[in-house]
TrEMBL record:
Similarity comment text for this entry: Belongs to the sulfatase family.
Domain Sulfatase N-terminal span(s) in chain numbering: 44-342
Keywords, sorted A to Z: Calcium, Hydrolase, Metal-binding, Signal
Keyword Methyltransferase found: no
Record's keyword annotation contains Calcium: yes
Modified residues (3-oxoalanine (Ser)): 90
Lineage, highest ranks first: Bacteria, Pseudomonadati, Pseudomonadota, Gammaproteobacteria, Vibrionales
Position of the signal peptide: 1-32
Enzyme class: hydrolase
GO molecular function, one term: metal ion binding
Post-translational modifications: The conversion to 3-oxoalanine (also known as C-formylglycine, FGly), of a serine or cysteine residue in prokaryotes and of a cysteine residue in eukaryotes, is critical for catalytic activity.
Gene transcribed to yield this protein: atsA_2
Name the record gives this protein: Arylsulfatase
Length: 479
């Protein structure tokens, strides 16, 4: 077995031998031989890239402020969805994306996905694909409520190289001197940049499985805070400047991955999906199409959900398409399996976007419904929206401005025929969802501590976080 050598990090082995933790086999099998000469449409490879904490304003192809030539090129090679939406926060999005199921049905806690859930990893593995995840995990439990969630292998990934495999003390850094897990085995690195290490694993997985179908789920660790310098932006100062450098580095890695696939002669055999898990953090204000856009991460607003979405498959999907039809991130699962000719056996809520990708329909969705109860530092909300209008569970009705993310409240005195029509449509659609009560817990980490509101459960009212050691801190080695 030949080992993949990382060039820069020095490894401290924790509960494992370094060689065992970082050795990746290169052998093939009979399945590889069977599919070595497959056509582009016969069991195509699939790569799903999920950026962490970056709204649609992060990509120049979608009118964003930040220069992203590699993602722009990927977008031009396929279909760009101008109205794609994820949940406003990371964990709710990841459960929605990986299972294709609306959150009110299977989201139980922050940082948690039930071990019984079936993911797109399970489906591709059962179809005979080699499967791997590279990047951020955050689904095995939050460490406060006692729930133990699914593991990467339980979710169908034969190989994994991830950050946030475990919570609390095992979490560690994702960037400089990271804590990563290879196939559930932990290793700390005394130096080196985490995203570079994960990128090497992703490319190695592709190399090892180039002669058979593979599914790579790549939930990137970039561009989430803390905002740090990257190997290409060592002189960046201030959070906005560092965030910009992180977007550029993310774009560089996406371009490197696409070029690597191309160098292996696999571009026509590979479906690429590029998207993000939620809006940008609110401390970052950017520009999109000349308009200011304040990041909306965590908030049930347009800037909290509006994300870039690109689907590309050379030779099979017509390039240079911009479509305005709605895309819910839970549509990724049925779309990639549909393109790959794989049937999903369980019932899901996502809808295949293949008719849109093939130019047969302008849209497969009239609206998107979200039950947003993250149980983590944010107020819950349920809402439904289409391309221009949005209705909240509490009755608030707004008009959407996709350029700025602004939601303009529509009151009874300023209703128009069009707004009345849209209100009725969304109200009817909302009723069909049969929404369940919103979970009130927002602070599971406060269990057993003094409530901020006497007589109210501290997991609902909150507690003094400073006494829990949960205050945000700045670490010199990350600067």
């Amino acid at each position: 077995m030949k080992a993949l050598k990382f060039n820069h990090p020095k490894v401290k082995a924790l509960s494992l031998c370094v060689t065992a933790a970082l050795s990746f086999g290169l052998s093939g099998n009979s399945f590889a031989a069977e599919h070595a000469n497959r056509s582009p449409t016969d069991h195509p490879n699939v790569i799903v890239v999920l950026v962490d904490d970056m709204g649609i304003e992060g990509i120049s192809h979608f009118g964003g402020e930040y220069y992203s030539p590699n993602v722009d090129q990927l977008a031009r090679s396929g279909v760009s969805f101008d109205n794609a939406h994820a949940m406003p926060l990371s964990s709710p999005t990841r459960t929605r994306l990986m299972t294709g199921i609306e959150n009110r049905k299977n989201y139980k806690a922050f940082g948690y996905l039930g071990p019984e859930q079936i993911t797109f990893g399970n489906t591709f593995k059962q179809a005979g694909y080699a499967t791997a995840i590279a990047g951020k995990w955050q689904l095995s439990g939050n460490g406060f409520d006692g729930l133990e969630g699914i593991t990467p292998s339980g979710a169908g990934f034969e190989e994994s190289f991830v950050w946030f495999r475990n919570s609390l003390s095992d979490k560690g850094s994702r960037y400089w001197a990271p804590t990563l897990f290879y196939n559930d085995k932990k290793a700390s690195f005394e130096e080196g940049f985490g995203p570079d290490m994960v990128q090497k694993f992703a490319k190695h997985f592709i190399n090892k499985n180039q002669e058979k179908p593979f599914f790579l789920y790549y939930p990137m660790m970039l561009t989430h805070d803390p905002y740090v310098v990257t190997p290409d932006s060592m002189n960046a100062k201030g959070e906005k400047d560092k965030f910009s450098g992180m977007v550029s580095y993310m774009d560089k890695q996406v371009g490197d991955l696409v070029k690597y696939v191309d160098s292996k002669g696999l571009l026509e055999n590979t479906i690429f999906v590029f998207t993000a898990d939620n809006g940008t953090l609110s401390k970052i204000t950017s520009y999109r199409n000349g308009h200011k856009v304040k990041g909306g991460k965590g908030f049930p607003t347009l800037n909290g959900t509006h994300v870039p979405m690109v689907v590309s498959w050379k030779g099979q999907i017509q390039p240079k398409q911009h479509v305005s039809g709605l895309f819910d991130i839970m549509d990724v699962y049925p779309t990639i399996t549909d393109l790959a000719g794989i049937k999903i056996k369980q019932e899901i809520d996502g809808i295949s976007q293949v008719p849109v990708l093939k130019g047969k329909k302008a849209s497969v969705r009239d609206s998107i419904f979200m039950h947003y109860a993250p149980m983590w530092n944010r107020k819950p909300a349920s809402f439904i929206f289409n391309q221009g209008w949005k209705l909240y569970k509490d009755g608030k009705f707004v008009k959407l401005n996709p350029d700025t993310g602004e939601e303009v409240l529509i009151k009874s005195q300023n209703q128009t025929k069009e707004s009345e029509k849209q209100f009725k449509l969304l109200k009817t659609a909302f009723a069909k969802e049969k929404d369940t009560p919103l979970e009130k817990v927002t602070a599971p980490f406060c269990k057993g501590h003094q409530s901020l509101k006497p007589g109210v459960d501290p997991t609902i009212a909150g507690c003094d976080r400073s006494k829990l050691g949960l205050r945000s801190i700045t670490l010199d080695f990350l600067e």
